Amino acid sequence: MQFNDKYFEPIYQRLLPDLKELERQRQMLQGRRKWLWPAGIILLALFVVFVIIPLHLEETNVPDYQQRVGYLIIGLLLALGGGMLIRNLLLRQFVLIPLSKFHEDFKEKIVRPLLRYINASFDYLPETHISYEQFIQSGLFARREYELDGNDLVTGKMGHLSFLVCDLMVTWFPQWISKKQPGDVVFYGSFFIMESPRFFSNPIYVVSRSENEGRVFSGGSSDMGFIETWNLGSPVIVSEKSFNEHFEVYARDMVEARQLMNNRLLNRIAALKRDSQTSLYIAFHTNKLYVGINNLQDAFEFSYDYPIDNKQLLGAYFYNFITQLELLQELRESISIWTPNVFSRS
C-alpha cells in the first residue's frame, strides 16, 4: 500500500469538481467575515445618529450639562452593545451556520470518498471518537480523570483483524487549577486499536524516547507522569541498536518480547517515527494492539485561510493515513511468525 502519484491522481481528479465548489464557498465565507466589522461599525454609527442623540440631547427638561453627558455615555454604551449584538447575529446567520455546513460537506464529499477509495469497506463517523475506557485499556497511560475530545472515527478490517482509528486529544486538568485554564495535553494525534483473535498473555509496550515532552518518567509515578514506565514491566533491549536509540520496550516476559520484536517489525516502527517526527506509543495487550501517533495534528481538517482545492493538502491526508495503515498491515503480517506461546493464556 505504497503512496504514489499514479495511485492518488484518479481520486484527486474525481474529487476536483467538489473541491472547486468548496473553494468557491470558502472564498465567499472569507469575504463575509471581512465585511462584518465594517458593517457593525456602520450600524453602530446609524444607531447613535438616528436614535441615541435625538432621544437624549433634545430632552428640554434636562438642562443640567452633566446629566446630558451621562445620558450620552449611557446611550453610547447601549449603542455599542446593540451594534455588537447585531454583529454577532449576522456572524451566526451568515458565517457560523454556513461554516458548519461547509465543514460537514467537506467531510462527506471529500474525506468519505477518499477513505472509500483506499478501502471500500471502511466505515467513517466524522463526529465520533473512542471512549475513555477504550483509551485507558491500553495500559499505557496512568488511570486519571482525563477529558477526551476527537473526531473522524474510521473502522474496518485488515485481513482478519478489525481496527478503528480516530483523531484524539486527551487532556488532564489538575484539581488545583480551573478548567478555564489550559490543562496538560496528554495525547494529541491519531489513536489506533486493532483487535486480534489471538491473546497476548503478557503485555508488551513500545514507547518513544522523549527528548522534549517531559511526559515519560522512569522510576515512579509523578503528577506530570502520564506514562508510568515502572508499571509496564522490565526494560527490554532489542537487537537493533538504532531502534534502542529512539524507543524503549517494556515487558513482563523478556523472552516473549524479543520473539515478538523481529527486525522487520522494528524497522517498520522506526520508519514511522522518522516519517512523522513524533512520539509513538504501541501496546500489545490481551487481544488488542494499540498504536498512538502523538503528532499534535488533527487529521482530515483544514484551515479556512488557505485554498481547499490544493492538491498537496489532499495528498498529505492520503499519504499520512496510508503510512499509518502500513504499520497496522505490518503488525498483521507479523502475527504469522510470532510464536504460539506469546498468545497462550496463562
Kindly describe this structure.
- The chain is an alpha+beta fold and 346 residues long.
- The chain is 47% helix and 23% strand.
- The protein is built from seven helices and nine strands; from the N terminus they run ααβαββββββαβααβα.
- The protein has helices at 5-57, 65-118, 132-136, 241-246, 254-260, 263-276, 311-335; strands at residues 123-125, 146-158, 161-172, 184-208, 216-217, 227-228, 234-236, 247-251, 279-294.
- The strands form two sheets. Strands 1, 2, 3, 4, 7, 8 and 9 form a seven-stranded antiparallel sheet that branches. It has a two-stranded parallel ribbon with strand order 5-6.
- β2 (146-158) and β3 (161-172) form a beta hairpin.
- The chain is elongated.
- The two termini are 36 Å apart.
- Figure out the total of helices: 7
Spatial shape: elongated
Rounded Rg = 28 Å
The largest sheet, given as strand count, sense and whether it forms a barrel, is:
7 strands, antiparallel
Task: List low-confidence stretches.
Answer: 211-224, 339-346
Separation, N- and C-terminal Cα atoms = 36 Å
Proportion of residues in extended strands: 15-25%
Q: Share of helix among residues?
A: 40-55%
Whole-number average pLDDT? Answer: 78
What is the string of SSEs from the N terminus onward? HHEHEEEEEEHEHHEH
What structural class do helix, strand and pairing data support? alpha+beta
Number of DSSP strands? Answer: 9
